[in-house]
Amino acid sequence: MIHWLKKWLVGYHRETEKTGTDRERIHTLQKGPLPRHVAIIMDGNGRWAKSRGMPRVAGHRAGMKTVRHITRAADDLGIEALTLYSFSTENWKRPKEEVNYLMGLPGEFLRTDLDELVARNIRVRMLGEEDQLPSHTRDAIMKFKEATRDNTGMILSFALNYGSRAEMIRAMHGIIDDVISGKLEKEAVDEEYFGRALYTADLPEPDLMIRTSGEVRISNFMLWQLAYSELWFTDVLWPDFTREMFFEAIDDFQRRSRRYGAV
Ligand code: FPP
């Protein structure tokens, strides 16, 4: 009975954004190679708000809606993992009011979107240093993780208080401790071992990285994991980024020839 209800809910939510053309678009894209993991630097919320004479936080509020649309789009396509850069270790330098607003977003997303994520069988995770987050943010993350722990569909990761260099230093410290204590031979530390010491240990490496807003840089995001990713940039600001634009990025990905250094 519960299984039936869940299936019905997934069906219901799946209908919410699909039109006939959209269905065909998805069907065509599914015939090509899909990226297993898509990582996104969601940029341009502040500029979006400024251009409308609104406070920066209004841009983040609008950006949340895009998070919902793109999560649906990725899930409808059958992407295995979607990672969203939501708050960097550098973002603490922003005005207090903005930081407080951003820290409230996981709680808000929990209230507004948890049911749909569960119905879609999506597992929610977090990448980053949790200890430094306010307790209400940690609480929302914990609730997300618990409520979606047994889900077997797409893995939706929020990179929160995330910085790639910090992530690598943290991994290195763990490895050094194990070598010093004799638990680990130095020679056993290879690329695979190091990869497993990162927050992304059980995720495939991103095949595609998208950045919105016209900035063409990586900004300390998954420096190790993006080694062979295809990069896709758009001038569109994150709140204006649509499901169809996401499909365009996937379409472009399917035209790339990935050689991993070979000819
Ligand atoms: C970058 O735009 C965006 C962010 C720092 C935050 C993005 C977060 C969300 C869209 C919501 C995340 C949702 C959850 C549930 C955690 P910016 O402010 O740097 O824009 P600007 O470059 O135009 O100033």
From TrEMBL:
Residues that bind Mg(2+): 43, 230
InterPro entries: UPP_synth-like, UPP_synth-like_CS, UPP_synth-like_sf
Active site residues per record: 43, 91
EC id: 2.5.1.-
Enzyme category, top tier: transferase
GO terms assigned for molecular function: transferase activity
Keyword Metal-binding: yes
Co-factor(s): Mg(2+)
Note accompanying the cofactor annotation: Binds 2 magnesium ions per subunit.
PROSITE patterns: UPP_SYNTHASE
Keywords for the protein's UniProt record, in alphabetical order: Magnesium, Metal-binding, Transferase
Residues engaged in binding substrate: 44-48, 56, 60, 88-90, 92, 94, 211, 217-219
HAMAP family: ISPT (MF_01139)
Function: Catalyzes the condensation of isopentenyl diphosphate (IPP) with allylic pyrophosphates generating different type of terpenoids.
Summary of subunit composition and partner proteins: Homodimer.
Family: Belongs to the UPP synthase family.
Name this polypeptide is given: Isoprenyl transferase
Source species: Kroppenstedtia guangzhouensis
Gene field: uppS
